[in-house]
Amino acid sequence: MGLTSEMKLAVPWGHIAAKLWGSQQGPPVLCLHGWLDNANSFDRLIPLLPKDFHYVAMDFGGHGLSSHYSPGLPYYQQNFVIEVQRVVAALKWNRFSIMGHSFGGIVGGMYSCTFPEMVDKLILLDTLPCALDYKESENLMTYKRRMIEHMLQIEASQKPQRVLSPEEMLQGFLKNNSHVGEECARLLLQRGTTQVATGLVLSRDRRISLPEHSIDFVSRNLLVHFIRKLQAHILLIKATQGFYNVRRENDADKEALHLVKDILKSVLKEWFQYTEVPGNHYVHMNQPQRVAGIISSFLKSSAPNQL
């Protein structure tokens, strides 16, 4: 399934860019990439999925080919949820599926709880539908503070973007993203860098810092209420060597995953499907064939009628 086209949707601060595959008459699937990634995250997976669906992979604001937010505006999780609604409204979709990797899954999960009637199926690639505040309560105000400090520091700094050769850019990217293979790194950089006279610069907005600074952590109690709102069938694909926590220092602790999984199971019952696959956080890019069959079956299955 070849890439159909590129698209730009007008938004008040510029545009949101997206890539389209498949027939526009097919059932729509919105693909949401991870933190600091871009729509190329799905380039190797989508060609392996059913041809009769219409796939749209958007670049979140400040990522890929999408415009940066207006000066003075921070990047908060809720803003990305609003972006999804802007894209859906522009495309005039009434009901659609979401496939989200990493942070994209958290945004997709929150969107699905906020606009439950819109989402038919939610596919989570090595991620959860919400970030649980498990062992994080102590840190939440620190994250909020760091977010503000980082943004103001970037605004005050007149430091130009670092210009690197393509090879330096690639090596730096691989060093910072140990889960991404070289071929996949090139794909992400292809959409995530801009050519200047002396080399390449990263295109993403420098106001975007660590994911935990922008994410809305929710309590277990709130999570149950959110999950009860869902009208979507959920598939969670967990990479066995993937990430288990938003904050990488806590990554060995799998308790948050088990807690969320148990809540999803007890609330959604047969509406929730959980599968583990060998691979790391970018298994959907590095070894897309490991997840393509599971996703294809899920997309083609008829979801239970109504909760």
What does this structure look like?
The chain has 307 residues and is of the alpha/beta class. Helices cover 36% and strands 23% of the residues. It contains ten helices and twelve strands. It has an eight-stranded mixed β-sheet with strand order 1-2-4-3-5-6-11-12, sandwiched between helices. It has a two-stranded parallel sheet with strand order 7-10. Strands 8-9 form a two-stranded antiparallel sheet. The longest helix is centred in the middle third of the chain and has 17 residues, at 140-156. The radius of gyration is 19 Å and the shape is globular. The two termini are 34 Å apart. The mean pLDDT is 93.
Task: Tell me briefly what this model is.
36% of the residues lie in helices and 23% in strands.
How does the SSE layout of this entry go?
Layout: E1 3-11, E2 14-21, E3 28-32, E4 54-58, H1 77-91, E5 96-101, H2 103-114, E6 119-125, E7 131-132, H3 140-156, H4 166-176, H5 182-192, E8 193-196, E9 199-202, H6 211-214, E10 217-218, H7 220-229, E11 233-241, H8 255-268, E12 272-280, H9 283-286, H10 289-300
Parallel strand pairs: 3-4, 3-5, 5-6, 6-11, 7-10, 11-12
Antiparallel strand pairs: 1-2, 2-4, 8-9
Helix pairs in contact: 1-2, 2-7, 4-5, 7-8
Helix content: 25-40%
Question: Which structural class fits the helix and strand makeup?
Answer: alpha/beta
The arrangement of helices and strands along the chain is EEEEHEHEEHHHEEHEHEHEHH
What about the largest sheet?
8 strands, mixed
Provide the residue-averaged pLDDT.
93
Adjacency order of strands in the biggest sheet? 1-2-4-3-5-6-11-12
The number of distinct β-strands equals 12
Cα Rg: 19 Å
The end-to-end distance, rounded to whole angstroms, is 34 Å
User: In one word, what is the shape?
Assistant: globular
Counting DSSP H or I runs of 4 or more residues, the number of helices is 10
Q: What fraction strand?
A: 15-25%
Give the low-confidence spans.
none
